[in-house]
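Hi R.,

As promised, here are both runs. First protein below:
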Amino acid sequence: MQERLARLEATVRELRRFRQSYLREDTRREPHLEWALRYGLLEATQAIIDISCHLASEKGLGAPATYAECVELLRRAGLLDDNLAQVVTRMVGLRNVLVHEYISVDADRLYALLDRLDDFQAFAEQIRPHIS
């Protein structure tokens, strides 16, 4: 699981570089940049989901039926604080939109998520002590 956590942090670093290199208008104007942004956000979000579900299983916290339930189990066990668990649950929703409704996702909305990269880092910091 350390590898997944390292991959999450590497993806967040790349998303930060993206934010420094490109403006919102660039993303609207260049389809390949929007694609890169979508993929980076999807990869980071999927890493959080994978880590959450793996950790819930490894710690014997229950049998989640959904990705959001994996996060809830971590919250109940005290591995994530309430506020971050809510944020991560919204990330799960983002992942579902990116995967299933990708055509309807607005590029401006995606770009605005670059202002929330600290949430990904907060997840890594809260989870790190619980990964063996």
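And here is the second one, sequence first, then its structure tokens:
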Amino acid sequence: MATVISSVPARRSVTTRRRLHLVGAAILLAGWIGAAAIYVNAGDESGDALGYEFVNGVAYPIQAYESKAYRHDLERFGGKAAIMADDFNRWFSGLWVGKHLAYTLATLASGGALLCFLAARRRPEDD
């Protein structure tokens, strides 16, 4: 039986494990570059401030929803649950604005890349 030796090198197939590593790296790179761009271009978030509080020469905006009258009225009409729901809603919606959006994007990209890397680690070396 004769063995045929080809002069053309065999093409190496990319394994699923390698693809998952590449996808994870791409997610991480794109997410962090996007987060850096958003962070650099994010503007000031004190557009609807009622006033400013100065502490050690630094001005901090006072928002309408931080006033005692607003919180008192909210608790009066909806109870403690309304205050907690309002706080949660403002926190969650704040994740998608300004510099907080950059932090959120970096965290989500890191988490997505970590999932890809962990999935690649669980895959066998040869598919």
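A quick note on the second one: DSSP finds three helices and two strands in the chain. Let me know what you think.

Best,
J.
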